[in-house]
User: Fold this.
Amino acid sequence: MSDTRDNKFTLKLNDLEKQRLEKLADAYDCNQSALLRQYINGGWDALFGETHPEAFDRHDTEMGDVLSGEIEPDEIDDELKIDGESPPQIPAADGGAGAAVSPGSHTPTQTPQDLAKAGPALSWDELTEAIETHWGDGLEIHPDRVEPETLKNNRDMGAKIIAGIIRSEEDVVPEVLIEQRIEDYLGHKVTRTDYDAGLEYKIDQYKPLIIDYLEAHPGTRTDLHYVSPGAAEGDLPSFVTNTLESLQENQHVLDINEWAEENDLLEHQIKSKEIELWLENVTAFRHDLLDLKRVYKNPAFIEILIESDIDYPEDSYQDPVKWLKAVCESWLEQYAEVDPRARYAAVHTVRETDGELLSPEIDEPAEAVSAFDSGDAPAPVQFAKIRDAIL
Assistant:
């Protein structure tokens, strides 16, 4: 490839674009050709680094893989990179003397890197073109790129755009945030006189679609989701470690006398309110156990944990999943020693059960169920009965 600049390039501009080009050249104290070369080379470096353009022409590597982030520019083989210290030499499209640019109305499709960083807000057409070209389970859209009233009543495209925005905000998101973003970006499409009812309908339409583009989370205290597989891989090991530490730090709740001592309470001071507080602590302990059970029962979480670098006694266990299951089973045995009425009440009185049990024997022991009128939540007055049984 020649270093001489003998390729002619025709550029069609409207009056405003021509004026901008002239003023930019003045601002940079260079001619217009030098300015365009600067933008071309800078744009190439930002997207493709030192990759040689012919690498894409010959399909030695695919441009889409670089744009999507599957391959980083610095991972390209050295033989496919530009030699020397000279900037990339961009040939004319036909390899000849010149090539006409497509009409000035054409707007280049946004790359995943463009979408993920702050920049000018995009139109609906620009967003849909970018989504159709680059959609994947890791695509992020910076909130700056989407004005609140840009989205239209298109459930498939709207759900993907909102999912992309949510991915750019946090690695773990609660469903309440999903509902808030639906209102933020689609509230203007609610046309019912009763706005709240219309918004609820809109949330019912879009929320399941958005959740389908997110990843499961093992937490049981609230409806949480990982925003991408990468977020799950990065967070799950620390989630497991932190939950195990929580069990260790709160094991005193398994014995009400130890719990009372931890909270500086004497036996005669433990009344209905204190019992309710203790049951809340027991429930929190139960949730920790349930969270960890979800990890070692879920195939996706199992795979992440096995591939992670989580610290565990490798000399004693074949893999971290077997270790986690053994540790949890040990805690379950200790939790099963808590008074059965308290275990039953911890599920049904303090908080509504989510339908998921550690096991029927632990969460709904027969002796506790028979102590109440039915399987419904025990009445608050029955805290006294639980207190007497425990003490």
About this structure: The longest helix spans residues 272-297. The chain has a mean pLDDT of 81. The chain has three domains: 13-84, 112-213, 227-390. The chain has 18 helices and five strands.
